[in-house]
Amino acid sequence: MAPVPPARHLLRAKDLIDARYREPLDVPALARAAHLSPAHFSREFRRTFGETPHQYLLTRRLERAAALLRTTDRSVADICLTVGLTSVGSFTTSFGRAFGLSPTAYRAAHPPATERARIPTCVLRAWERPSRSFREDSWPRRL
Fold it and tell me: 10 Å Cβ neighbour count for 30?
């Protein structure tokens, strides 16, 4: 049996972050998933992916928060807690650094989803057609 490359173990931890970003994840838990010591895991993760595990986790959380800001009308505090962060102040600061706008300004810069929703033309035309009754007695009978 051939040994598994170290990057393969790191992908386990990365997948864990992607799937469970809402949960409190720390380096020891991620290192256990990768079957590495915490210090070695942190070094290898940064060398392989170009950012620390904490930075990667924060990026995933902020990306999800941005999507929620664009598509929902939930409060900033609620979104902060939903994505796994505990401090609204830290969330606002981190979000501003990542996106260049505060969460409230970001939401204002993106119109609500209902204004952007595109309905296919074929559906619109079908909806605009005059309604017909499809009862059996309304159809011409052929013998």
Answer: 24
Sequence-ordered list of residues with C-beta below 8 angstroms from that of 90, at least 6 positions apart, any chain: none
Q: What is the 8-class DSSP label of residue 3?
A: P
User: Residue-wise pLDDT tens for the chain (143 aa)?
Assistant: 566 666 788 999 999 999 999 999 999 999 999 989 999 999 999 999 999 999 999 999 999 999 999 888 899 999 999 999 999 999 999 999 999 999 999 999 987 656 666 777 777 677 666 555 555 555 555 55
Which CB contacts under 8 angstroms, 24+ apart, belong to 40-45? 41/10, 41/13, 44/6, 44/10, 45/10, 45/13, 45/14
Residue at 61: amino acid letter = R
Neighbour-count burial of 89, counting CB atoms closer than 10 A to its CB (0-12 exposed, 13-18 middle, 19+ buried): exposed
Report H helices in 50-100: 53-71, 76-82, 88-99
